[in-house]
DNA sequence: CAATATTTTGCAAAAACTTGCAAATATTTT
DNA sequence: AAAATATTTGCAAGTTTTTGCAAAATATTG
């Protein structure tokens, strides 16, 4: 195993585990305790992790790089949704991904050989695409809202006005057959309306817990949405009444 | 097997595997270890891969491991620099932080009780400020350059034109008394010149290894810089000849 | 405090790299 | 086509880097 390979593996595990024993690393990588120790020293020198007594922990830079790496639960609702959503991606598309959690995971799961342009107002999402060589990223700038980890404001809107993407993947807090798609934050609801206007087609990906949920600020009625992707079957009883939208 | 054939096979294999042992290549291509090594050297010279001890990796494999970053060592040069730099921060200032490593660590070390506005084109830096409640963050949007993890492009410049911050902390690759401040990337050097124009005062923070280093693209001569912060004493012999700049 | 675990240091062996050279192969010239 | 020339390949010897180990020193735990 190449040293670089080992170090990559260390970082990959640390992105998920946040903290690892040197002994466990030694077993995992099938090299001596000492070799692992040397690797770890080197990685610490590079600012990629922090060495502690008997082990290593993630540092802030790696935390930022790893994003929300608790990840998508195997076989869970979200994984089903993301798998369905990935099917809409085609080579050479231009897509808008806003700052929702689902979109972050979708971005991560973009096949490495897929050529895309991603427009986003989410720094973590942009960074999730660091290793996607074939994905061009356009970052929308504005005032950074730490709570949501997205940029918003008039500058974002101005940039969007000049775009007309193929697809917009809209993140929401809730979707209801009569109250439509909604959110808890006013400015963000306005921004998403603008994102809809800046794309030919709007897709909303939600897990079933969000169905029937209504929050304070409506983004749009169901009929304005082109495609609804959920973990449910399209003919599920819970999706009855969602008219004027393609269900997947 | 022709050399060209072999080299093509190496690249194809690397595309899939990302990393290969030289020994495995030797077996696979049924040529001596030495011939493989020569092939690999040639391919590296062409920039098509990266040679590492005992093997090769694809160029993108080392994105995170490539030694551009340095950790902040306790008592090390960088820590001294950052401590000095922090002294320039005052309540209610508006500062520009570009995407250098030093600025990332500086951002992290901003006291939690300090009220600031930070303008930045660096998503990781914006995210490093997630827990700083008193720091407002303005993210400059544009095309996201994954290699440098910054946004650049005309949109960034347009946004900057409308700003006039108190301070600009400029990240560089090298500083030399006659050749000034320089960088390895052309677009970035232009952007930093624009950032200088968008701030009342420009501060450059560097560790001593960067002193005397000259890279391809000059940002500005020393005299245009307001303040130089290094880990050295201001009257150090290594700082002789740096005229027209405040040394800290 | 003693026992245990971890870290540091120094070292030898193994692996990888570098260099120079001769033989083999490929290309060019006649 | 044969001869001359250039390039490539494989090898051996010497050098450097990496790895694993053991002993000593230090830190942690009960």
Task: Describe, in plain words, how this protein is organized in 3D.
- 2 copies of one chain form a homodimer.
- Chain A is an alpha/beta fold and 248 residues long.
- Chain A folds into 2 domains: 3-66, Winged helix-like DNA-binding domain superfamily/Winged helix DNA-binding domain (Arc Repressor Mutant, subunit A); 77-247, Rossmann fold.
- Chain A contains 9 helices and 15 strands.
- Chain A has helices spanning 3-17, 22-29, 33-45, 60-66, 77-86, 101-109, 123-128, 154-161, 186-197, and strands spanning 19-21, 49-52, 55-58, 93-97, 116-120, 135-139, 142-145, 150-152, 165-170, 174-176, 180-183, 199-206, 217-220, 227-230, 246-247.
- In chain A, the strands form 4 sheets. Chain A has a 7-stranded parallel sheet with strand order 6-5-4-9-12-14-15, sandwiched between helices. In chain A, strands 1-3-2 form a 3-stranded antiparallel sheet.
- In chain A, strand 2 and strand 3 form a beta hairpin.
- In chain A, helix 8 packs parallel to helix 9 (186-197).
- Chain A is elongated, with a radius of gyration of 21 Å.
- The structure holds a DNA duplex (30 and 30 nucleotides).
């Amino acid at each position: 195993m190449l040293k670089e390979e080992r170090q990559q593996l260390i970082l990959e595990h640390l992105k998920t585990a946040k903290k690892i024993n040197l002994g466990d690393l030694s077993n995992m990588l099938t090299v001596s305790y000492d070799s692992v120790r040397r690797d770890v020293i080197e990685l610490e020198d590079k600012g990629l992790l922090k060495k502690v007594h008997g082990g290593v922990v993630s540092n802030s830079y790696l935390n930022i790089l790893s994003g929300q790496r608790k990840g998508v639960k195997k076989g869970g609702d979200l994984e089903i949704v993301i798998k369905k959503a990935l099917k809409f991606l085609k080579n050479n598309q231009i897509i808008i991904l806003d700052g929702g959690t689902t979109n972050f995971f979708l971005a991560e799961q973009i096949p490495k050989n897929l050529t895309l342009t991603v427009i986003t107002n989410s720094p973590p999402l942009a960074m999730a695409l660091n290793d996607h060589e074939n994905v061009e990223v356009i970052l929308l700038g504005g005032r950074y809202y730490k709570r949501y980890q997205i940029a918003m404001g008039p500058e974002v809107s101005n940039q969007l006005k000049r775009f007309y993407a193929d697809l917009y993947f809209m993140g929401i807090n809730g979707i209801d057959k009569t109250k439509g798609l909604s959110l808890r934050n006013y400015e963000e609801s306005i921004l998403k309306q603008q994102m809809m206007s800046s794309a030919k087609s709007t897709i909303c990906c939600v897990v079933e817990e969000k169905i029937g949920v209504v929050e304070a600020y409506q983004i749009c009625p169901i009929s304005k949405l082109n495609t609804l992707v959920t973990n449910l079957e399209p003919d599920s009883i819970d999706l009855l009444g969602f008219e004027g939208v393609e269900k997947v």
